[in-house]
Design brief:
4-stranded antiparallel beta sheet; 12% strand; 10 helices; 5-stranded antiparallel beta sheet
Amino acid sequence: MANLWYDHQHKTLVASNPQRNSLYFLRLAGSSFTYITERALPHDTTLLSINISDTPEADTALFDIPIAHTQGFTILRVRKDLIMPIPYPDAPLIDSSLLATLLPPIDEAADPPDEKKKGKKKAASPVLTNGKQKIADEMVAFESSLLKSLSSLLTSSLEDQESSRRSTQSLYEANQSTLLKLVSETLTENTGKILKDTITSGLQNIVLPRHLQDDSAALSESILQPLSRDLLKLSTSLDAQLATMRAHQIERDQAFSAKIDRILSALQRIESALPPNLNGHSLVKDEPSTPSIDSQRISDYLLQHKHEDAIVVWIQSDEREDLFRFFHPLSPSIIDQCSQVVLLSLAHTIAVNLETQLQDKLRYLERALTLIDPENAQIAEVANDIIRLIEQQLVSISGRLTSGDITLRHIKALHRYILGKFHHLE
């Protein structure tokens, strides 16, 4: 609720508004009061009370206005000709120029509203002018920030769309290239067959007509002799090429066999480094195992939580495809405690045959590759060769999958992981 104070000497009414934390100044004109101005106090001040001074002199204080603010407590003394802050003892002084701006003195000589010239606008208060200017500046800054944000958002969206379009275009061009290559090869093969049949049929109809049967021997000789020579040359060339290809194949087979021999030899050499909990199992098996015995042993080991022993038995078994059913429902995390030798052997054994149970085998293969440390002394000697064989198997199996197969993306991701982790082994 507002409090009112009236100054008889200056015919001025002062009203306080605690809700708005401001002062209203009104002037008595005739028989009614006319609103002069409202002055809001700073946001960090609070209007406490207003006391009318009993001093009759015109140049002394008319109102004492206690004002609490963030830095202390001050009395604002309103006089006829000025507004002056008078601080309490040890209280900080409020800037008089700021208070004069907020609460200007009442002009005694100001004309009443009915005597003002019509059409003349009242001058805007400095606080209102400054507030409007501040709002305008903030609006300009907000518009500029909004435009920048919208521009950045649109640019990012356009870049994403362009990237998506390029990716789709590249995929489309790759598919078109593959399709065109397949169509070209099919057309070439079919055209060759048609030409061969046409030429054979034409030769038979031309060379052996009924009315030229007497001359067939001479005509056949004239045609077959050059053809025989050409076929002989072609046969000789083909024989040479086949011999060269067989020699290369033999060399590759020998190199591959030598690599396998080195791997098996190295595995046998590092068997002695296996931990004692493998119970004397060998990673390289000499004799075929009995499926029923291996099945029972794997089941027993899994029930006893001897996962590494179960993995070794599975690696040794000749019925790995059938016995993999024991690991299908289990999490690949069961191999987390296996030794590096067992992990490398497991990865190689899984990669040898990815034709069946592909999804489950990929889960175990990925886990094993994640755990393998190629710098480990137990496997450092053979890690490179085995990892390269696994990589070749992944490339081979991916070539037999369709482009839309989700498993193909899994294999490609695993291949990229191998290249990133084991590239230094080259």
